[in-house]
Amino acid sequence: MKKSKLFLVVLMCLILTSNLHSHPVRNREIQYEQPDGTILNVFISGDENFMLIHDEEMYTIIRDSRTRFYCWARQGEDGELESTGFPIHLHDPKDLGLEPGETISPERRRLRTRSIPHNENIQGRSDSRNTPSTGDINQVVIFVRFSDDTEFPSLRNEYEELFNGFAPEQNSLKRYFYDTSYEQLTINSHLYPISGTANIISYQSPSVRDYFQPYQWNQEFS
Fold first, then answer.
1. 217: how many CB neighbours lie within 10 A of its CB?
2. Alpha-carbon dihedral angle through residues 8, 11, 16, 18, given to the nearest 10 degrees
3. Which residues on neighbouring strands pair with residue 199, listed in sequence order?
4. Whether pTM exceeds 0.70
5. What is the mean pLDDT of residues 178-187?
6. Which residues are paired to 188 by β-bridges?
7. Is residue 129 predicted with pLDDT exceeding 60?
8. Maximum CA pair distance of the chain?
9. Euclidean distance between CA atoms 90 and 84, whole angstroms
10. CA dihedral in degrees (106, 112, 115, 117; nearest 10)?
11. Three-state secondary structure along 80-95?
């Protein structure tokens, strides 16, 4: 359960910091694994509106929603990227007649950009960040477990300290953002469901933990 605590805090840090400042990414190398175990070294480029996976020659890659393989991509009739169905480790994009730089249509890009909210009413600012970097933030932390998990064994006050502890020596989410923002940002976490006791009561997912594990390739599918 110590691992679960760490995961909760790391997850909240990632969510909050990812929205504080959004910078374009260009040719950042990343590694993926195909369902058959093949390791892929590819690149990502883009920004908070749209991220593209591609190889070193800028041929676009997308994960096939049916087979779960990373395949060469092309622009579909609706302006979005679609899978060709050809896994990138088994086929050369040149042999398929594809061109480098395949991406979504300009209209689709405009729609994505317009769908991202701006903080026009947060402390009088109007910019492209979705989370304020100063002031007070109130967030909800919801306890959820899988259908094959038992209830959280730790007491509720342990998580209160983990998220809302404010002593200078505490390693809490609240203290971390308060210190790194030079005392400009305070994050207050509200834990749900409210149990009324020292124990944690959590919502239970209808699915088991393995349901969310990565898809595994099998021979009959090939």
1. 15
2. 170
3. 155
4. no
5. 88
6. 138
7. no
8. 65
9. 12
10. -110
11. CEEEEEEECCCCCCCC
Tell me: the pLDDT tens digits for 144-164? Answer: 999 988 888 889 999 999 999
Which residue in this structure is represented by tokens 């007491």?
155
Please name the amino acid found at residue 84: T
- Distance between CA atoms of residues 59 and 142, nearest Å: 41
**Half-sphere CA count of 42, side-chain side, radius 13 A:** 23
The pLDDT tens digits for 166-177 are 988 888 889 888
Residue 47 structure tokens: 């920004």
